Design the sequence.
């Protein structure tokens, strides 16, 4: 069986390795990548001894089998750190999730929030969207203070238009834990993220690179696809340099790109694909000399006066991301779908971000960057708006009927971290081969 995979990121490489390993018959796998290197959304870059990711990432998972597989794949090239994410609200930093650390905000505001939560009648409410869900579980005050402005800032969609699918990712503390947190007895909220892993060397791109040890198939780099056709159950993939034929095709390219190059596609699929939202993003990266003065791994900023929604501090992922006596910062701005890179100038973004970082005490007031870099990514945040699942399922079925499988964050419109990429690769392999995938076969320790 000839299987083609579009995209050499974590999703493409892992599903290729699993198909090779667990197929009972010969399975020839070819990965096609438009760039000159692997990694995709999990790539890294390097400046003067500093390591940055193309969007900051850390490694954690609720799925112990998948977490062990990824950590083991790194061998000795991994460090374990304790998560210290903070929410900037009411002029102060509170632990994330905020609802577990109301003691860090103004006492009267915290008391009002607790009183409202205690009086909520959650059992009789049936939320229809994410806005409803937050108000049912956390009340109006906390929703308006943080959840609504932060989520609208990230997703660039009205809060009431967001699907409740997001709620599956959000821990629900007990009312007792909220009360205890309000008086300083704070309980961890995201326990599966309390400790995370990060490569010692090579940045986050070391993870997809480590997966190559399990993949024996072919990878063709600089292979930009401009047409896909299906005839007599055979799939042909065309580029300027070659055309290849497969029995099955797995694609991690954005759905919007796939429908553009798929020949004789149903017009309904084109229209449905246009309704799926993927937001672009700016990443502003800095290198500094000196000490940052805190151990935050990330800060979250809901205040609409700041463009930035999240700031990450790579040295607190792993010391090896910076030269001795230095630290780094990466700030993110998510934008509405369709926004182009020229919305803001690089100079404005650097100056505005530095101002915000100093005002919020994320860096020292006298900090002067050794360098700065602005990147823009057309595809960054997959948005789950209300009823997106129905539209997506029609698109997925259309392609699967033609032996083409949508995969990965942008290929399947699924907000996946790297553990989720592996989980979905495992599921897809089991679906295609009808065989159980046991990741313990890949253990290197």
Sequence:
């Amino acid at each position: 069986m000839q299987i083609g995979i579009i995209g050499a990121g974590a999703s493409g490489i892992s599903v290729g390795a699993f198909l090779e390993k667990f197929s009972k018959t010969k399975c020839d796998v070819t990965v096609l990548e438009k760039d000159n290197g692997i990694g995709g959304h999990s790539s890294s870059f390097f400046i003067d001894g500093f390591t940055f990711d193309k969007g900051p990432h850390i490694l954690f998972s609720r799925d112990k089998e998948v977490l062990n597989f990824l950590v083991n794949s790194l061998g000795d090239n991994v460090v374990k750190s304790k998560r210290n994410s903070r929410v900037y609200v009411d002029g102060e930093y509170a632990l994330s999730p905020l609802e577990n650390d109301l003691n860090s905000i103004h006492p009267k505001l915290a008391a009002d929030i607790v009183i409202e939560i205690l009086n909520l009648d959650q059992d009789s409410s049936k939320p229809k969207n994410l806005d409803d869900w937050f108000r049912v579980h956390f009340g109006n005050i906390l929703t308006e203070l943080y959840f609504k402005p932060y989520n609208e800032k990230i997703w660039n969609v009205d809060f009431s238009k967001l699907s409740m699918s997001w709620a599956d990712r959000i821990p629900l503390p007990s009312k007792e834990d909220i009360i205890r947190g309000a008086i300083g007895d704070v309980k961890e909220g995201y326990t599966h993220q309390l400790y995370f892993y990060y490569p010692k060397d090579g940045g986050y791109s070391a993870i997809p690179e480590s997966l190559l040890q399990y993949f024996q198939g072919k990878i063709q780099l600089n292979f930009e696809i401009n047409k896909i056709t299906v005839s007599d159950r055979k799939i042909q993939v065309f580029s300027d340099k070659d055309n290849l034929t497969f029995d099955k095709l797995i694609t991690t390219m954005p759905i919007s790109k796939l429908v553009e190059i798929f020949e004789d596609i149903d017009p309904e699929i084109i229209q449905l694909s246009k309704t799926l939202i993927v937001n672009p993003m700016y990443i502003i990266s800095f290198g500094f000399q000196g000490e940052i003065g805190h151990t935050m791994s990330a800060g979250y900023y809901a205040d609409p006066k700041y463009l930035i929604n999240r700031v990450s501090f790579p040295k607190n992922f792993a010391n090896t991301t910076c030269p001795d006596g230095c630290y780094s910062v990466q700030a993110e701005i998510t934008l509405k779908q369709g926004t182009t890179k020229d919305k803001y100038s690089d100079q404005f973004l650097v100056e505005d971000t530095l101002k915000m970082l100093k005002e919020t005490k994320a860096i020292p007031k006298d900090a002067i960057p050794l360098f700065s870099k602005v990147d823009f990514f057309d595809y960054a945040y997959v948005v789950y708006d209300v009823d997106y699942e129905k539209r997506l399922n029609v698109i997925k079925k259309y392609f699967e009927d033609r032996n083409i499988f949508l995969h990965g964050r942008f290929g399947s419109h699924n907000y996946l971290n790297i553990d989720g990429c592996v989980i979905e690769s495992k599921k897809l392999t089991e679906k295609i081969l009808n065989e159980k995938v046991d990741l313990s076969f890949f253990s290197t320790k």
